[in-house]
Amino acid sequence: MHCFRRLELKEKEMIQITNKSQCCGCTACFSICEHNAISMVADEEGFLYPAVDLSACIRCVICEDTCPYRVHREKDRETSSLHIAVQYKDEKKRVESTAGGAFSLIADYILEKKGVVYSVGYDDMIVCHKLAVEKKDLAEMRGSKYVQSTLKDTFCEIYRFLDKKRTVLFVGTPCQVHGLNSYLRKKNCTLDKLITIDLLCLGVSSPGVFEKWVKFLGEKYGDRVSGIEFRNKHFGYAATNVRIHFQNQRILEQKFDTKAYIKTFFSGYNVRPSCYECKFRTMPRVSDFTIGDFIQIGDYSKEMDDDKGTTSL
User: Fold this and answer.
1) Contact criterion met (CB below 8 Å) for 119 and 158
2) What angle do the packed helices 207-221 and 256-266 form, to 10 degrees?
3) Cα angle vertex 299, ends 293, 303, to 5°?
4) Spatial contact of 115 and 86, defined as CB atoms under 8 Å apart
């Protein structure tokens, strides 16, 4: 009788998404499950949510115990922080970056110290987290991608690197960083080799809408999209110029078609439900570094206001 009641209780406690505003899609639950009972499945808006295979689930509820919405954030950092303006002296990398190149500056240093970097790039025009082991791998990771990244097995791969005492830099949204920290703590992993960067995040937009937009562009212009720069600086740092690259070397920019997707994002039309009441972009921050645009740099330094980009770090 007692065993039956305990099983019934645990069935209620495993991950079940009944309120989408309480799931950021960080993959912590998916990554921690050793029985492969959880998969990340896209809903009708294109956002990924955990789905439990009841035939594989053993009702251990470790997924529930790892979820960043259920785990109280360990405030193990100082509440005060140093706020600085950053411009990478590597001019080429700064121009290729959305702002001042702070990500490239930190990532270059990590790779020079034989560490590895996980940040966001493209895989056949799917926005996803990727591994960088050489500086050339960082090129596609520069610049904003206003799409929620697919993480796949990133958390598990980071755990294996840390277990081998390798330094790892992870860059993501505040909820992704908190999910990673929660997962690694549940794995009893030492975090002294982990460096994290979170973004001054406006929210994440739909991978499903992004996929349809890319398909639309390809069909309309008769060529496959090979790359997208959401904050290209051809017209200066202040201009939000979206540049589309096609396989035949054609470049499209400053058109309604190129701006349509980003307009829906900045208007809040295609943002993940959890982003409207985010619990993670608070002080103190969850990461070692927080980066974002320093668009007000002219109010503090006329010398740095050169329209090439500055990072608030």
Assistant:
1) no
2) 170
3) 85
4) no
How far is Cα 170 from Cα 194, in angstroms, rounded to an integer? 8
Contact criterion met (CB below 8 Å) for 40 and 34: no
What whole-number distance in Å separates Cα of residue 226 and Cα of residue 218? 10
Q: For position 1, what pLDDT does the model report?
A: 35
Quick check: helix, strand or coil at residue 220? helix
Dihedral of alpha carbons 281, 276, 271, 176, sign? positive
**31's tokens:** 């990554």
Instruction: Tell me how far apart the alpha carbons of residues 270 and 47 are, in angstroms, rounded to a whole number.
Output: 10
Residue 201 · residue 294 · CB < 8 Å: no
Give me the residues of the chain with pLDDT under 70, please: 1-13, 72-80
Tokens of 289: 């570094």
Judged by DSSP in three states, 135 sits in helix
pLDDT at 73: 62
- Strand partners of residue 225: 246
Q: Return the half-sphere exposure (C-beta side, CA atoms, 13 A cut-off) of residue 86.
A: 25
Indicate the DSSP class of residue 224: -
| HEC-encoded secondary structure of 102-118 | HHHHHHHHHHHCCCEEE
Whole-angstrom distance, CA of residue 142 vs CA of residue 104? 7
- By 3-state DSSP, what share of the chain in percent is helix, strand and coil, each rounded to 5? 35, 20, 45
Residue pointed to by tokens 């980071």:
158
Q: pTM of the entire structure?
A: 0.92
Whole-number Å distance between alpha carbons of 307 and 295: 9
Rounded Cα–Cα distance for residues 175 and 280 (Å): 6
pLDDT of residue 78: 54
3-state secondary structure of 261: helix
Cβ density class 247-285: b for 16+ within 10 Å, e for less: eeeeebeeeeebeebbebbeeeebbbbbbeebebbeeeb
129 phi/psi in degrees, rounded to 5? -80, 135
